[in-house]
Amino acid sequence: MKKTILRITTAAIALAITPLAQAQDSDAATQAVETAAQAVEAAAQAAAPKTVDADPALWVVKDEDTTIYMLGTVHFLKPGMTWFDEAVKEAFDKSDSIVLEIKPNENPAADQQTFAKFAVDQSGKGVRSSLTDAEKKSYETAMTSLGLPVAALDPFKPWAAGLVMQITALQKVGFDPNSGVEKILENAAKANGKEIFGLETAELQFGIFDSFSEKTQKEFLAQTIESIDEIETVLDALVDKWAAGNPEALGELLHQDLSQPEMKQKLLINRNANWAKWINERMDKPGTVFMAVGAGHLAGAGDVQSLLGAYALNAERINY
Q: Residue 90 — pLDDT band, cuts 50, 70, 90?
Protein backbone atom coordinates (compact mmCIF):
# COMPACT_ATOMS: atom_id res chain seq x y z
CA MET A 1 0.00 0.00 0.00
CA LYS A 2 1.48 3.36 -1.03
CA LYS A 3 -0.89 5.68 0.78
CA THR A 4 0.74 7.52 3.68
CA ILE A 5 -2.52 9.24 4.52
CA LEU A 6 -1.87 9.31 8.26
CA ARG A 7 -1.07 8.86 11.31
CA ILE A 8 -0.41 12.63 11.11
CA THR A 9 0.06 14.67 14.28
CA THR A 10 -2.48 16.96 15.90
CA ALA A 11 -0.49 20.07 15.09
CA ALA A 12 -0.06 19.04 11.49
CA ILE A 13 -3.75 18.45 10.91
CA ALA A 14 -5.37 20.95 13.23
CA LEU A 15 -3.05 23.88 12.56
CA ALA A 16 -1.55 23.59 9.09
CA ILE A 17 -4.37 25.19 7.09
CA THR A 18 -4.61 28.28 9.31
CA PRO A 19 -0.87 29.02 9.57
CA LEU A 20 -0.59 29.48 5.83
CA ALA A 21 -2.32 32.83 6.20
CA GLN A 22 0.64 33.96 8.29
CA ALA A 23 3.36 32.67 5.96
CA GLN A 24 5.81 35.53 5.71
CA ASP A 25 5.92 37.48 2.46
CA SER A 26 3.54 35.06 0.76
CA ASP A 27 0.40 36.53 -0.80
CA ALA A 28 0.05 33.28 -2.75
CA ALA A 29 -0.16 31.30 0.47
CA THR A 30 -2.88 33.59 1.81
CA GLN A 31 -4.84 33.19 -1.41
CA ALA A 32 -4.45 29.41 -1.14
CA VAL A 33 -6.05 29.44 2.29
CA GLU A 34 -8.95 31.59 1.10
CA THR A 35 -9.55 29.38 -1.94
CA ALA A 36 -9.42 26.20 0.12
CA ALA A 37 -11.75 27.67 2.74
CA GLN A 38 -14.33 28.54 0.07
CA ALA A 39 -14.17 25.02 -1.34
CA VAL A 40 -14.49 23.47 2.11
CA GLU A 41 -17.47 25.67 3.00
CA ALA A 42 -19.26 24.72 -0.21
CA ALA A 43 -18.62 21.03 0.42
CA ALA A 44 -19.85 21.29 4.00
CA GLN A 45 -23.08 22.97 2.93
CA ALA A 46 -23.70 20.31 0.31
CA ALA A 47 -23.18 17.36 2.67
CA ALA A 48 -25.91 16.40 5.13
CA PRO A 49 -24.26 14.75 8.15
CA LYS A 50 -25.58 11.40 9.31
CA THR A 51 -25.49 10.10 12.86
CA VAL A 52 -23.04 7.25 13.39
CA ASP A 53 -22.57 5.55 16.77
CA ALA A 54 -18.91 5.02 17.65
CA ASP A 55 -17.40 3.12 20.57
CA PRO A 56 -13.64 3.70 20.36
CA ALA A 57 -11.25 1.69 22.49
CA LEU A 58 -10.55 3.05 25.96
CA TRP A 59 -7.87 1.95 28.43
CA VAL A 60 -7.05 2.72 32.05
CA VAL A 61 -3.80 2.62 34.02
CA LYS A 62 -4.13 2.97 37.78
CA ASP A 63 -2.62 2.45 41.19
CA GLU A 64 -3.85 3.28 44.68
CA ASP A 65 -4.08 7.05 44.15
CA THR A 66 -3.63 7.73 40.40
CA THR A 67 -5.81 6.90 37.41
CA ILE A 68 -5.00 7.65 33.78
CA TYR A 69 -7.59 6.95 31.10
CA MET A 70 -6.26 6.64 27.54
CA LEU A 71 -8.37 7.28 24.44
CA GLY A 72 -7.15 7.08 20.85
CA THR A 73 -8.35 10.02 18.77
CA VAL A 74 -9.05 10.92 15.16
CA HIS A 75 -8.10 14.54 14.56
CA PHE A 76 -10.61 15.05 11.71
CA LEU A 77 -14.06 13.44 11.71
CA LYS A 78 -17.19 13.89 9.67
CA PRO A 79 -20.01 15.52 11.66
CA GLY A 80 -22.45 13.14 13.32
CA MET A 81 -20.10 10.70 15.08
CA THR A 82 -21.53 10.01 18.57
CA TRP A 83 -18.48 8.76 20.48
CA PHE A 84 -18.53 11.13 23.47
CA ASP A 85 -20.89 9.05 25.59
CA GLU A 86 -21.03 5.84 27.66
CA ALA A 87 -17.67 4.81 29.15
CA VAL A 88 -15.75 7.59 27.38
CA LYS A 89 -17.93 10.32 28.85
CA GLU A 90 -17.92 8.61 32.25
CA ALA A 91 -14.12 8.52 32.27
CA PHE A 92 -13.96 12.16 31.19
CA ASP A 93 -16.37 13.21 33.94
CA LYS A 94 -14.28 11.42 36.59
CA SER A 95 -11.07 13.12 35.46
CA ASP A 96 -9.56 16.19 37.09
CA SER A 97 -7.75 17.25 33.92
CA ILE A 98 -7.21 16.23 30.33
CA VAL A 99 -3.97 15.74 28.39
CA LEU A 100 -3.78 16.17 24.62
CA GLU A 101 -0.85 15.97 22.24
CA ILE A 102 -0.77 19.77 22.22
CA LYS A 103 -2.41 22.21 24.60
CA PRO A 104 -4.74 24.47 22.56
CA ASN A 105 -3.19 27.85 21.95
CA GLU A 106 -5.34 30.83 22.86
CA ASN A 107 -3.25 32.89 20.45
CA PRO A 108 -3.61 31.26 17.00
CA ALA A 109 -1.29 33.85 15.45
CA ALA A 110 1.61 32.37 17.44
CA ASP A 111 0.99 28.92 15.97
CA GLN A 112 0.66 30.46 12.51
CA GLN A 113 4.06 32.06 12.89
CA THR A 114 5.53 28.77 14.12
CA PHE A 115 4.23 26.97 11.06
CA ALA A 116 5.61 29.65 8.76
CA LYS A 117 9.01 29.44 10.43
CA PHE A 118 9.31 25.76 9.58
CA ALA A 119 7.24 25.50 6.39
CA VAL A 120 8.61 28.35 4.28
CA ASP A 121 11.73 27.49 2.29
CA GLN A 122 14.05 30.32 3.29
CA SER A 123 16.43 29.50 0.46
CA GLY A 124 13.75 30.63 -2.00
CA LYS A 125 13.88 27.30 -3.80
CA GLY A 126 10.27 26.31 -3.04
CA VAL A 127 8.38 23.13 -3.69
CA ARG A 128 7.82 23.12 -7.48
CA SER A 129 11.43 23.95 -8.29
CA SER A 130 12.49 20.77 -6.49
CA LEU A 131 10.37 18.55 -8.76
CA THR A 132 11.16 16.93 -12.09
CA ASP A 133 8.98 17.85 -15.06
CA ALA A 134 6.88 14.69 -14.62
CA GLU A 135 6.54 15.24 -10.86
CA LYS A 136 5.61 18.87 -11.43
CA LYS A 137 2.86 17.88 -13.86
CA SER A 138 1.36 15.44 -11.33
CA TYR A 139 1.64 18.03 -8.57
CA GLU A 140 -0.10 20.72 -10.61
CA THR A 141 -2.88 18.32 -11.60
CA ALA A 142 -3.46 17.46 -7.95
CA MET A 143 -3.48 21.13 -6.93
CA THR A 144 -6.06 21.91 -9.61
CA SER A 145 -8.24 19.00 -8.44
CA LEU A 146 -8.21 20.52 -4.95
CA GLY A 147 -9.31 23.89 -6.28
CA LEU A 148 -5.98 25.52 -5.45
CA PRO A 149 -3.89 27.71 -7.78
CA VAL A 150 -0.87 25.67 -8.93
CA ALA A 151 1.52 28.31 -7.58
CA ALA A 152 -0.23 28.70 -4.23
CA LEU A 153 2.19 26.60 -2.20
CA ASP A 154 5.37 27.48 -4.07
CA PRO A 155 7.00 29.11 -1.00
CA PHE A 156 6.82 25.90 1.01
CA LYS A 157 9.03 22.88 1.52
CA PRO A 158 7.75 19.55 0.16
CA TRP A 159 6.52 18.27 3.55
CA ALA A 160 4.48 21.42 4.15
CA ALA A 161 2.95 21.39 0.67
CA GLY A 162 2.02 17.72 1.03
CA LEU A 163 0.50 18.33 4.43
CA VAL A 164 -1.66 21.22 3.24
CA MET A 165 -2.81 19.20 0.24
CA GLN A 166 -3.90 16.33 2.50
CA ILE A 167 -5.77 18.61 4.86
CA THR A 168 -7.50 20.46 2.03
CA ALA A 169 -8.52 17.13 0.48
CA LEU A 170 -9.89 15.87 3.81
CA GLN A 171 -11.97 18.97 4.39
CA LYS A 172 -13.33 18.95 0.86
CA VAL A 173 -14.82 15.49 1.41
CA GLY A 174 -16.41 16.44 4.73
CA PHE A 175 -13.81 15.73 7.42
CA ASP A 176 -13.80 18.60 9.89
CA PRO A 177 -11.32 19.46 12.69
CA ASN A 178 -14.21 20.99 14.65
CA SER A 179 -15.82 17.54 14.72
CA GLY A 180 -12.52 15.87 15.63
CA VAL A 181 -12.05 14.27 19.03
CA GLU A 182 -9.61 16.86 20.35
CA LYS A 183 -11.88 19.80 19.63
CA ILE A 184 -14.86 18.13 21.32
CA LEU A 185 -12.77 17.31 24.37
CA GLU A 186 -11.28 20.79 24.46
CA ASN A 187 -14.72 22.41 24.45
CA ALA A 188 -16.03 20.00 27.08
CA ALA A 189 -13.02 20.59 29.33
CA LYS A 190 -13.44 24.34 29.15
CA ALA A 191 -17.16 24.06 29.86
CA ASN A 192 -16.46 21.89 32.90
CA GLY A 193 -13.51 23.85 34.25
CA LYS A 194 -10.99 21.07 33.66
CA GLU A 195 -7.38 22.08 33.09
CA ILE A 196 -5.88 21.08 29.74
CA PHE A 197 -2.26 19.97 29.42
CA GLY A 198 -0.14 19.13 26.37
CA LEU A 199 2.46 16.42 25.87
CA GLU A 200 4.19 18.39 23.13
CA THR A 201 4.29 21.83 21.53
CA ALA A 202 3.44 23.03 18.03
CA GLU A 203 7.10 23.93 17.56
CA LEU A 204 8.17 20.39 18.43
CA GLN A 205 5.63 18.79 16.08
CA PHE A 206 6.34 21.04 13.11
CA GLY A 207 10.02 20.56 13.85
CA ILE A 208 9.63 16.80 13.45
CA PHE A 209 8.28 17.25 9.94
CA ASP A 210 10.98 19.77 9.14
CA SER A 211 13.67 17.34 10.32
CA PHE A 212 12.80 14.85 7.58
CA SER A 213 15.47 14.41 4.94
CA GLU A 214 14.80 15.87 1.51
CA LYS A 215 14.31 12.33 0.21
CA THR A 216 11.62 11.58 2.83
CA GLN A 217 9.91 14.91 2.21
CA LYS A 218 9.69 14.28 -1.52
CA GLU A 219 8.41 10.73 -0.94
CA PHE A 220 5.72 12.12 1.37
CA LEU A 221 4.67 14.68 -1.23
CA ALA A 222 4.68 12.10 -4.06
CA GLN A 223 2.57 9.65 -2.06
CA THR A 224 0.17 12.45 -1.13
CA ILE A 225 -0.30 13.33 -4.80
CA GLU A 226 -0.80 9.67 -5.72
CA SER A 227 -3.43 9.09 -3.03
CA ILE A 228 -5.30 12.40 -3.11
CA ASP A 229 -8.33 11.00 -4.95
CA GLU A 230 -8.59 8.08 -2.52
CA ILE A 231 -8.18 10.01 0.72
CA GLU A 232 -11.86 9.71 1.71
CA THR A 233 -11.92 5.96 1.15
CA VAL A 234 -8.71 5.45 3.11
CA LEU A 235 -9.68 7.60 6.08
CA ASP A 236 -13.22 6.18 6.12
CA ALA A 237 -11.66 2.73 6.53
CA LEU A 238 -9.51 3.95 9.42
CA VAL A 239 -12.45 5.67 11.11
CA ASP A 240 -14.58 2.53 10.76
CA LYS A 241 -11.97 0.50 12.68
CA TRP A 242 -11.63 3.24 15.30
CA ALA A 243 -15.41 3.54 15.75
CA ALA A 244 -15.73 -0.23 16.12
CA GLY A 245 -13.16 -0.25 18.92
CA ASN A 246 -10.83 -2.52 16.94
CA PRO A 247 -7.28 -1.30 17.63
CA GLU A 248 -5.71 -4.43 16.15
CA ALA A 249 -7.25 -3.85 12.71
CA LEU A 250 -6.67 -0.11 13.02
CA GLY A 251 -3.02 -0.67 13.85
CA GLU A 252 -2.58 -2.92 10.84
CA LEU A 253 -3.96 -0.25 8.49
CA LEU A 254 -2.00 2.56 10.08
CA HIS A 255 1.32 0.73 10.01
CA GLN A 256 0.78 -0.09 6.34
CA ASP A 257 0.06 3.55 5.55
CA LEU A 258 3.02 4.83 7.58
CA SER A 259 5.60 2.54 6.02
CA GLN A 260 8.32 5.13 5.31
CA PRO A 261 11.07 4.31 7.89
CA GLU A 262 12.10 7.83 8.87
CA MET A 263 8.53 9.05 9.26
CA LYS A 264 7.54 5.98 11.27
CA GLN A 265 10.51 6.38 13.60
CA LYS A 266 10.03 10.09 14.23
CA LEU A 267 6.24 10.37 14.15
CA LEU A 268 5.36 7.14 15.91
CA ILE A 269 8.10 5.11 17.61
CA ASN A 270 10.03 7.93 19.31
CA ARG A 271 6.90 9.67 20.51
CA ASN A 272 5.32 6.48 21.84
CA ALA A 273 8.41 5.95 23.98
CA ASN A 274 8.29 9.52 25.25
CA TRP A 275 4.62 9.24 26.18
CA ALA A 276 5.03 5.91 27.97
CA LYS A 277 7.75 7.56 30.04
CA TRP A 278 5.42 10.50 30.74
CA ILE A 279 2.66 8.15 31.96
CA ASN A 280 5.11 6.39 34.29
CA GLU A 281 6.22 9.71 35.77
CA ARG A 282 2.64 10.96 36.08
CA MET A 283 1.71 7.88 38.11
CA ASP A 284 3.81 9.33 40.95
CA LYS A 285 1.26 12.13 41.37
CA PRO A 286 -2.25 11.51 42.73
CA GLY A 287 -5.32 12.37 40.66
CA THR A 288 -7.35 11.25 37.67
CA VAL A 289 -6.30 12.20 34.13
CA PHE A 290 -8.02 11.76 30.76
CA MET A 291 -5.31 11.34 28.10
CA ALA A 292 -6.30 11.57 24.44
CA VAL A 293 -3.72 11.07 21.68
CA GLY A 294 -3.85 10.01 18.04
CA ALA A 295 -5.28 6.52 17.67
CA GLY A 296 -2.17 5.30 15.86
CA HIS A 297 -0.19 5.61 19.09
CA LEU A 298 -2.56 3.20 20.85
CA ALA A 299 -2.81 0.62 18.07
CA GLY A 300 -0.51 -1.99 16.59
CA ALA A 301 3.02 -3.11 17.36
CA GLY A 302 4.96 -0.79 19.65
CA ASP A 303 1.88 1.04 20.92
CA VAL A 304 2.04 3.04 24.14
CA GLN A 305 0.19 0.38 26.13
CA SER A 306 2.77 -2.31 25.36
CA LEU A 307 5.66 0.01 26.24
CA LEU A 308 4.22 0.53 29.71
CA GLY A 309 5.31 -3.00 30.60
CA ALA A 310 8.88 -1.75 30.88
CA TYR A 311 7.68 0.35 33.82
CA ALA A 312 5.70 -2.50 35.41
CA LEU A 313 2.46 -0.75 34.46
CA ASN A 314 -0.57 -2.45 32.93
CA ALA A 315 -3.07 -0.73 30.63
CA GLU A 316 -6.43 -2.44 31.03
CA ARG A 317 -9.01 -2.26 28.23
CA ILE A 318 -12.38 -0.95 29.44
CA ASN A 319 -15.19 -2.99 27.92
CA TYR A 320 -18.43 -1.17 27.25
A: very high
